[in-house]
# Entry
Amino acid sequence: MAVHEATHPGSFRYADLETFPDDHMRREIIDGELIVTPSPSTRHQRAVVLLTARLFAYAESNGGEVFCAPLDVLFADDNVVEPDVLFVRSDHLDRLEVKFVHGVPDLVIEVSSPSTRHLELVRKRELYARFGVPEYWYVDLDADRIEVYLLGDGDFTAPTLTFPGQRLEATQLPGFSVSVQEVLGL
# Structure
């Protein structure tokens, strides 16, 4: 697959990411702007590991692949992000490249961190909608809930909020569900 052309000439591109040192900082590009964030907390990582493990078990039985950060999702040359967790169904495995996912994952999950809340709830959510991600989960560790955004008419619908004591089902992954309380580590 060819990389989409950059939409912002003179801005950061995918090739620029390879020039940075491996210093455990997350580097992403949204509309040509380089965004750098620090390593997350242990609670954040527990949620990422649990979701990755549950999705891995689902993939073993149903096909598809799950990945956790760091792995680039290349939407366009100047729009490259690293979701905390992503899933690509078996009918879309052609989107997997050696070093990145090229195009749209079927499910994208971001887990909150105080330093990235605005980035994930505003900029990345808008980016995911713009490029057609069909399902986006935002695990809000501060509010102890998971927000589920589904794509409809080119934008995400109002989120469905799920709380401890509930199970969350993925619309893109038939038969997959997970305990909200378990994800939140409560």
Observations:
- The radius of gyration is 16 Å.
